[in-house]
Amino acid sequence: QQQVKQSPQSLIVQKGGISIINCAYENTAFDYFPWYQQFPGKGPALLIAIRPDVSEKKEGRFTISFNKSAKQFSLHIMDSQPGDSATYFCAASNNNDMRFGAGTRLTVKP
Amino acid sequence: DAGVIQSPRHEVTEMGQEVTLRCKPISGHNSLFWYRQTMMRGLELLIYFNNNVPIDDSGMPEDRFSAKMPNASFSTLKIQPSEPRDSAVYFCASSLTGTANTGELFFGEGSRLTVL
User: Fold this and answer.
1) How far is B109 from chain A (nearest CA, A)?
2) Buried b or exposed e, range A29-47, using 16+ CB within 10 angstroms
């Protein structure tokens, strides 16, 4: 069932650094690629999303880069802050069928 | 507006007992999803409903699991009989689909199930 592969499993970054999380997918029918952020004890919440007609989307310190031919996309967190410490999930969906990556636990050290 | 509401938040039960998890989606949303989260397998889609109709239940692990959505504002996920390997956090999520669909899922805070 693992249709979306995510790496790394865990990531430690210094405050102010850049966090990069990568995902790859197989199903070319996917047409929506969101990233979700999850804090302990909470459900995942949408952070940023992209559709395959653009190669990049930026919202504040968060950027998605999308490579349709390689079937890969990544999340970049600029100027990482301790408050960004959470688990990040990439996902891919087609209509109502949304599949998640395994998650990346990000720790930003002060 | 209230988000997706799940109950119970925590459930501890013994192997063989029946477990029922409940979900109230966001009012007006027409799609509802049940996910299971474990350290080993991450977030797994179990089943989703569109307009109260089950569309894809291929993720339901086995016959011990069943889900219902009797109306637009309520869904249940039942495990009977429960086993220790069912221990996980179960999330319900809802979304609004259609031409204005953003694709965003809104998750509840989850139900943490422990089967002893």
Assistant:
1) 5
2) ebebbbbbbbeeeebbebb
Task: Check: CB of residue A23 under 8 Å from CB of residue A74.
Answer: yes
* Phi (first) and psi of residue B90, to 5 degrees: -105, 125
List residues bridging with A33 in a β-sheet: A50
Number of other CB atoms surrounding residue B84 within 10 Å = 10
**Residue B62 half-sphere exposure toward CB, CA atoms < 13 A:** 7
Minimum CA–CA partner of A47 in chain B: B104
Judged by CB atoms closer than 8 Å, whether chains meet at A42 and B44 is answered as no
Q: What are the chain B neighbours of A98 within 8 Å (beta carbons)?
A: 33, 45, 103, 105
Tokens 């109950």 sit on residue: B7
Query: Which tokens sit at A98?
Result: 């949304």
Size of interface A-B (CB pairs under 8 A): 56
Answer yes or no: are the C-beta atoms of A54 and A66 closer than 8 Å: yes
If 0-12 CB within 10 Å is exposed, 13-18 middle and 19+ buried, where does residue B47 land?
A: buried
Q: Which of A98, A47, A41 is nearest to B6 (CA)?
A: A41
pLDDT tens for each residue of chain A, 110 residues long: 568 999 999 999 999 999 999 999 999 989 899 999 999 999 999 999 999 899 999 999 999 999 999 999 999 999 999 999 999 999 998 876 788 999 999 999 99
